[in-house]
Structures are given as C-alpha cells and as structure tokens.
C-alpha cells in the first residue's frame, strides 16, 4: 500500500490518495483543482472507491463534486459538519475567499469512532475535534499512516481561532488519539510535509509540557 500527496489550490491543501496494490484507491480531502486531481488519477490508472473528508473547511472540499461525479463514489464526513458542505459561511469560503464554495451533501455521515471497510481498505476513524468540531483522523494500520487533516502538522498544530475551534480540545485530541499510536506512524498532514508521531513527540513545541 502506498500514498501520494497532491497539494491543491491557493492554500496548497494536501489531497492524499491512498493506493492499494490492486489499483483501487481512496481520496482524502480533494480541496481544489478537480481537473488536475482527476487527470493525475486517470494517468495512474487507479480506481477510486470513496472520498473521505477530515473536515469540511472550504480548502478541503472544493473538488469533492468533481471527483464524486467522475467516478460515482460516496463522500464521507462527520455528522457535526454535514451542513458545512452546503453553507459557505460555515465552511469559511465566504469569510476568507469572498466567494461561495458549495458542494452537495455527503453520502455517508460519520457519527462515532469505528472501523471502516471500503473495498480492501480498513481504516480506523478517530474523532479529533479542536481545529473544527467534526474533525476526524483516519488511521490505516496496514500503511502505518494516519491522515490527520489540520489537526497535527510537522512542528505545529491546527489553528483554533476559527468558528468551533478549541485549543485545549485540540491538544487533548492529539495526545489521546494520535500520540498513542506507534511512533513510526507517518502523519499525512493537511498542509506541508509528512512527519511521524515519534518526531512530533520529540520536537513539536506545541505538545511538549501539555
């Protein structure tokens, strides 16, 4: 199993494509530039099975419908942010971009921590609120990786000054849900480069002393 990071849009939000050896794949956070993302996947001859959102801020959802319509695949998001997809105020696009980003409602609402089985993929859904109320992280043990969205970055953490953000809650999410994973687990971040759980435990200034 492998993954590819594809930065998209003006904020260079990372879309991740997790690819099984059989050629099927999962798409995480297709934030913008749908044509670019679709072209890349088609050139690789991968077969997408689903779109999974870590949260519903505008820079993570902009290409959702492009991808969903291309392959007729379901979109997953946490129930707490189900209405953010259709509301440009809630997803922040109107506030920060001065434009409306609206996508159709999700096909599957995540309401609790669980294990998702999609094709040959098995993912553990971890609720990691703090950056936003419905932020989730997807732990893929077979790939020794976790898709963290904007919860944890290399040397930093997600911002908490947006509507529904909570600094203490974010730190609790990171410590209770992420830092308990094996230290070699690769963190696939919503922006910037990948890191590992071990590296963040050792060097992340926001986590030391909490």
TrEMBL record:
<keyword id="KW-0862">Zinc</keyword>
<keyword id="KW-0378">Hydrolase</keyword>
<dbReference type="InterPro" id="IPR036866">
    <property type="entry name" value="RibonucZ/Hydroxyglut_hydro"/>
</dbReference>
<dbReference type="GO" id="GO:0046872">
    <property type="term" value="F:metal ion binding"/>
</dbReference>
<dbReference type="GO" id="GO:0016787">
    <property type="term" value="F:hydrolase activity"/>
</dbReference>
<feature type="domain" description="Metallo-beta-lactamase">
    <location>
        <begin position="12"/>
        <end position="191"/>
    </location>
</feature>
<dbReference type="InterPro" id="IPR001279">
    <property type="entry name" value="Metallo-B-lactamas"/>
</dbReference>
<keyword id="KW-0479">Metal-binding</keyword>
<dbReference type="Pfam" id="PF00753">
    <property type="entry name" value="Lactamase_B"/>
</dbReference>
<protein>
    <recommendedName>
        <fullName>Metallo-beta-lactamase domain-containing protein</fullName>
    </recommendedName>
</protein>
<dbReference type="InterPro" id="IPR051453">
    <property type="entry name" value="MBL_Glyoxalase_II"/>
</dbReference>
